[in-house]
Please model this.
Amino acid sequence: MFNIEDLLDEDFSVYPEEVRAYMENFSYNLRETLKEELVEYIGNEMLKDIEINKENFMIKLGSILNNGHKGYNNMSTKVLVDLYLDVKKQEDFIALLEKVSNEV
Model:
């Protein structure tokens, strides 16, 4: 068993080599899946806005263009999880963890 904080911090130094390799692979897959899910969610929200309320779409787009948007690749796993939980339910996150676990 491993500590969730180690996964979020991506610090696997205290684990044996074979466990470390599994955790690094799991962490990579988790990050990639979180990024994909966040892009899909934000993209869908923006597409809804453009169909329903062009003004909201323009506000979101203007915010991204004016203020920039820190890329998901530069964010820590913990920040990605926090962002995901801001827009999705805890049950969705558990399903995501199970999906990633099955892929590893």
Summary: Helices lie at 4-9, 17-52, 54-67, 77-87, 90-103. The radius of gyration is 16 Å.
